[in-house]
Structures are given as structure tokens and as C-alpha cells.
Amino acid sequence: MSTVNRKPVHVAMFSGGAASAYVAYQMVQAHGKENCILFFTNTLWEDEDNYRFMNEVSEYIGLEITERIDGRTPEEVFYDYRFLGNSRMAKCSEELKVYQTIIFLEELRDVYNLEPILYFGIGPHETHRSDNLREFYKHRPIEPIETRFPMIDTFRADIDVKAIIENEWGIKLPRMYSIAKDLRPELGVKGFSHANCGGRCVRGGFQHYALLYSVWPHVYAEQEEMEENFRKHFEKNVSILKKDGGPYTLREYRKVLETEGVEKFLQKPDDTVPCVCSFS
Ligand code: SF4
Predict the structure, then answer these.
(1) Å from CA of 34 to ligand 1 middle
(2) Is the pTM of this model over 0.85?
(3) Is residue 92 lining ligand 1, measured as CB closer than 6 Å?
(4) All domains of the chain in start order, with CATH
């Protein structure tokens, strides 16, 4: 069936971040909540405060969250594929987010005869990610899907969505944005730049894991244990982080952080989070 016969439905790709919340709000103002969907794919590793934020935003906007869950955690996906996710390849993202999204979009078309238009909270400083997403949804699912990036194309470049959400909406931002400032102010860092999967993102790099170790050493320990268990189970020398093109385990990295301190590793930002898992 051609797209012209389907009624449009506006779908906010709600990640749990401030920008996607703001984009969702504006989308509903423009098109009415009866024509909108607030869509979230849950990896079961999300930080609990992200759920609090999402629920408050959903209530503020007046639109329930439509959630899709594969049912596996990223760790379970790694075991299924016998491949530990890392910055170069993260099957968790494909399976738990992309695949669930594609199924949902196909259902909108096939079951409800709706034509989805997707809205992302990606900002002007991340056009490489919006370009990737535009390109991706041109080819998947079967027919191209329209993608919109109001933070780039519509809103003022200097709009401060975090301030609007906190001051005008009265909703506290997810704690991961300011976790370092709150728990370790002496580090001079505010919080996670990508707070996906409760700080356990396998796309995170050296800065990300140095920060995780600094603010939530117990979560770092969980991730380290997951990596060690995987290595033992499959008897493979693999790791989440890479150094000089080879494996570099979280255990090795922790020892370096313990002896050399975290500060120098907090300075250089990572740029490895996949576009579909964006916390924006
Ligand atoms: S945020 Fe990271 S760990 Fe979570 S699904 Fe995406 S790539 Fe995997």
C-alpha cells in the first residue's frame, strides 16, 4: 500500500533525555495528542531515575508512554550471539532498540494503517547522528520513513531545554545528567554525556568508564564481573574497551584508575554511543 493512503502518526523517539522530552512536548502541541505516540524501547538496564523522569514527562505532556521490551538484557543478547558488545559493534542496540522499533513501525502500518513520522531529540552539534538516522530510515523498514529533527531544523539553536524542563515544567532532570557534580564535585565534571543503560553502555569509552568508576563503583564492578564471566564462559580474550586495537579489560582499566587516579581520563570525551541509543 502506498503511504498516501495512510493517516500520519507522529512518533517521538523518547530516550529518557531532556531534548527528546522537549521535542515530544512540541510535537504534541503541534499535532494533538490523538495523533501522537511517545515511544520508548526498554533495555532493562535503564537507571531507575530515568523511569521517574519519563513518567513525569509523560504526565506533563498528557500522553502515555508506548513501551516495547524485547525481554532480554544486553548481557543476554551478548550470550545469545556469543559476542561481547563493544564500541565497534553492539548487538544489544540492534536487537533491543532498532529491531523493536522496526517491528513497531511495521505494525503501525500493517495493523493500524498509520504512516509514522519519527521525531528525534538530536541537537545541532550531532548532525552526523541525524544524518545516519535519516539514511537508516530511508531504507528500513521496507518503505522509507520520514524523520524529523526539530532541535536542528526548527528550534532556536541556543534553546536551553534542560532549563525549560526544570524551571517551567517543574520536572527534575534525570540524575545521570548531574551525578558527578552531586556525588564528586571535586572532579569538576557534571555527569554522563550518554547515560544509556544506567551507565553500563558497552559503547562507552575511557572517559565514560572512568566516570562510572568515580560515581558508582558498584555498577562498574557489575560490568567488570559481566565481562569476566563472559570471557571465562566462552574462553575468549574479548573486552568492552579496546586499547591499541586489542582487548583491554575493565579489570585492567580499574587497576590503572586505582593507581593513576581518574582525573586525566575524565578530560577526553568519548564519541562512541550509537545513534539509536542516544540519551538526548
Ligand atoms: S545504550 Fe549501550 S549497552 Fe545499552 S543497548 Fe545501547 S549500545 Fe547496548
Answers:
(1) 31
(2) yes
(3) yes
(4) 3-173 (3.40.50.620), 175-272 (no CATH)
